[in-house]
Each structure stands twice: as C-alpha cells, then as structure tokens.
Amino acid sequence: MDNSLVLIVEDEHAIARILEGYLHREGFRTVRAADGETALQHHALLKPDIVLLDIRIPRLDGFAVLARIRAAGTTPVIMVTALADDIDRLSGLHLGADDYVLKPFNPQEVVARVKAVLRRTLGQQRQEILRYRSVEVDFDSHLAFVRSNGQRTALTLTLSEFRLLAHMIRHPQQAFGRAELLDACMPESDALERTVDTHVSNLRRKLEELGEPGMLPSVRGIGYRLADPQ
To answer: 151: how many CB neighbours lie within 10 A of its CB?
Structure first.
C-alpha cells in the first residue's frame, strides 16, 4: 500500500491541494485532474492504484468517468459528492464505486477510506485464481479458462460475461437473481434484466464448446446458479 498512486479528480483547487497534502503525509503519491477527460487520460497513462473522484466536475461528470474506468478494468474508485441526488444514486454502490464520501469531509477520514479500500482490494487480488469444476478464473489478468484432458483453454469472453462468471464463482453455492447479476456484470448500464439472459446464454454456449455443458442451470422464479460440483 505504501507509495500507492492516488488519482485525485477535483476541480476545486483548494480541496485537491488539501487532499494531496494529507495523502503525501501518509506516504502516497498523487496526481491531479480538474476535469473528467483529463482524469481518463491520467487513468489510461499512469495506471493509478486508486481514484478519488468528485462527481460534479467539468467536461465529463464523475458518473461518466466511473463508467469508463469500470469498462477498462477494476481500479478502485471512491466517489466524492455533496448533493443529495448523488447520494441516492450511490447509496447501493450499484454503479461500481468501491466507496463514497460526503462533502464537507475530514481529510483524515478520506485517507482512512483510501487505506481501507486498498487493503480490501489487495486482499481480493491475493485470491489470484478461483476454480470451480474445470473452470478457472484469473482475477489479476481478467481471463478465464477451462481445463480438459490436461489442456488449459482460454474462454473468449466479453467484459460482461467475464464479470458474470467471476461473480458467480466467488459465491458458488448461491442462486442469483437477474437484477443482482445485472449489477455485477454491467454496473454502469441501464440495460434491462433480460439482457442477463443473453449473457448467460452466450456464456453457456462458450462453456459447452469447451466441454462444460450444463454449467449455468436456471433456477425457476429466481434466475441462475452454478451447477453442483462434479
């Protein structure tokens, strides 16, 4: 966690400077962006370890920036806002944010939140690979594989299909409703729940082609689950 790079996305110079000072005091490196487009450029080029993202920023707002970051990968994001409407949208963190803080805030609390999210994220990364039946999901590389007859074959998945499979493998005994799976695989989208059926159908077909038929059975009245271990 020491020396982690924090991208501070904040258009109020005084607030950004205060956050920067407190983070430097705790050993973090920082880079700043005052608008959404610059934030995305920094994210793509500098690969920050975590993003502190104000919602009401120029050019692209924080929700649009979050959606782009989530489409590109799993960088942790803490949203910052002062508006009740934003709080309502963030309350369930369904948009893919890892946490949020409210203005006015105590900078020490923000630093504590940054540390907590990084600890949690690093803990998840240590899992590295989860296995279920012949399927392996590598969270670091965002790849999934099927093992058969000693061969390890990569599944060619879309980002939504990978997220769906990874979410289910993290909770292998659970039955999932369509709304939950939609939040897990397309958190930045306004797609309808039936979109999940399309993703599951495509994922089933790809698993079957590699020797894993029946991996995602339907659960009547609920949604889907993983098939029982062999």
So the answer is: 10
